[in-house]
Amino acid sequence: MQRPVWLLSMDSEQFNAPPTTTAGLASYYRHYGVRAQETAIDLVHFQRAEDIGPWLAAWATTGPGRVREALAAGLEPVLGFSVYTWNAAEFLALARQLRALAPGLTLVAGGPHVQQAEDYLGPEALDVIFLGEAEVTFQEFLDSDSRSTWHGIDGLAFLDGEQLLRTRARERCQELDRFPSPLDVLQLTHADGSPRYDAIAYETSRGCPFKCAFCEWGTGAIGSRMYQWSLARIRDDWEKITAAGIANIWLADSNFGALKQDLAKAQMIVELKQRSGLPRSFATSWSKKHSRQVQEIALLLHRNQLLPHYQLALQTLTPEALRLSNRQNMSANEYQPIARQMSEQGVPIAAELIWGLPGDNLADFERNLDTLIATFPNINIFGYTLLPGTEFYRRREEYRIEAIPVAGYGKAKGEYVVGCHSFSRSEGEEGYFLISAHILLVHGHIMPLTTRLLALQGEVPVSPLLRECLRALVDSLRTTLVDLDPDDRMSLYENRNAIYLAALADREQLYRVLAQVLADHCQRHHGDVAMALQVLALDAALCPRSGGEQDLVASFSYRADRVWSALSAMDLPAPAELAAAGCTLKIHHPGGVGDILRDADGGSWLRGVILEVAEESSSSVPAVALA
Questions:
Q1: What pTM value is reported for the model?
Q2: Fewer CB within 10 A of the end CB, N or C, for the chain?
Q3: Strand partners, 195
Q4: Which stretches does DSSP call E strand in 127-204?
Q5: DSSP label at 420?
Q6: How far is CA 381 from the centre of its chain?
Q7: Is residue 77 a contact partner of residue 5, using CB atoms and an 8 Å limit?
Q8: pLDDT digit string (tens) for 169-191?
């Protein structure tokens, strides 16, 4: 019989893609494995956690028998997990179930989340952890004669009795073309030729020259030289991907644009789209150095409708947090001219922030966020997940890091930092409340123009306003969301989408509450209440709606169309536009709230779009008024 090997992977909730990581292992072994012909590798890929139960039930009827048969034939059956933050909880639980079903099965794991081997060998039902780049290690492991030879394989961690042993570190491969393509062992289409996947994660390079203390990029490749595949290999793979009809290519590179060859890759993807119509989009992690080449690549992709956004990974602007994160000298920190240059070219630019980094605090974070709201049209804020294998993980006691398990974006689970030496637990949780408020009110397109107006004016603090608005909304929804504790900030964070949908279910109450909070906040900070409420009226008219597609007419007592144009361009509207004769807007709403749209992060995709503008000779009643 052939030796049975199962390799398991799972998508994150919002990204369905081929299992290129486990396929890379299988492809390498098929090409270089001494016993490849005697080994049957089964790639098991779960699109969602709910798929695990049915698979396990089916495996329980045949898997244990195959394991026993292999052991009787002198073969060692292996089952491996590709472990990331989003699947760690599910896969560790599955490992325990498999151990009970088949005690003789060797359970192994690799991936970024398990590089701190002592946390998993012994406490969990795992026999071996693969450390670092695993293609060669996995091949040598499968070709080893017995467990007694594991000591001589670089890049392993395992228990020898009760002692944890780590073998010598595996040197990274410098000639990446030596790795055969994972596409060689993947079926990208169904029998009828339609694509199995909407997107694919693809590497053109490995390594990252930076040493960010919160990051574990590429399983041991952090702070190291970048190596890349040849253009010929990349072209061959991309031709296969587009021929299969896969619509979106998402690069798993750490610093796209940093290598000289990256421009040629961008030109290649543009040529593919012009010839075949695919891919429709191309996303990546951009170089931290905003060089002339990076700008050229971003503009090229934007001109060819391939760039969803250009994301500037700032993570924090607080000096002490930058220092502790080893990011104080990055050129991306000079973000204002970068944002201005890209915006002038029409490139959709976004900033990325992390709340909870050691060295940060809520007051500085909120001031920095207000500055960025006035600079970037889009901002993504993430809670800091403490990842195994990172510098902050190793120094968690030194920085007095307090973390709790929380469900984050999608179904990602991890240790979310809620306290450390620079901010208290209550401050940390309030930071998550701010993230929730920003997602609901800005990403959810409930009041993005109002917050941008206030940030551009620079007189009224915006971040505290977001938290005040969310507090008032949660209070107004007590009878609707009866199981939600309004004082439990982390529970509110996890249930933010339920709050969003409940708020939009009663838009009249939603904007009545927001108008009152906005007026009170502006008055306390000596801001222009009337102007803020005028723009809130425009937000209310454009806010996503339930039901099907619909065209609505909204009248305003000012030139709402010109105010919208100015704020969309990150400019303050001229005072004359807010004092001018009113206008009527015809607005198209795609609808879909609660049906298509169930996640506040997607609010901007289903916002209203202005179709027509009609000037009015006299003022009209504003769309939002104080109750």
A1: 0.89
A2: C
A3: 189
A4: 128-130, 156-160, 163-166, 199-202
A5: B
A6: 10
A7: yes
A8: 999 999 999 999 999 999 999 99
